[in-house]
Each structure stands twice: as structure tokens, then as C-alpha cells.
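[INFO] parsing input record for DUF1127 domain-containing protein
[DEBUG] input buffer:
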Amino acid sequence: MANCSDMTLNTAIFRADARPSLALRAFDALLGWQRRARQRGQLAGMSDSDLKDVGLSRSDVAAEADKPFWRG
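[DEBUG] output buffer:
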């Protein structure tokens, strides 16, 4: 089973709720931003060999890492 960091809060816990509260939606957004920032950091830490394996260049990584955390 996936943990909450792999899923949005809404789908992990509040499936029956038709419309989550503003606080829950804000918390879900914060989790998404945190996840995105962490993933971009991990991407920046990959070796050139690993990047080549997944079809990315250093310039691709730099372009992704330069994005603000709130931009997808």
C-alpha cells in the first residue's frame, strides 16, 4: 500500500468527501509542493550516467530545478 506522501491527501483519506475543506485542500497543495521540491533536488543529484539512462541532460535538469516549487 502506498503511503500518504505518494498520494494526495484527498485520495488517501477523504475519498467519500465530495468537496474537502479549504484547509484540507491547502494542506494537500503544501504536500504537493514539498514532494515536487524533493523530487527536483533528487533529480539534480543524479549522476550524468543516470541522467543519460533516463534520457535527460544537465540542461534539462537545470531547467527543471530552476522552476519555483509551486510550478508543475
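[INFO] The first helix runs from residue 9 to 13.
[INFO] shutting down worker
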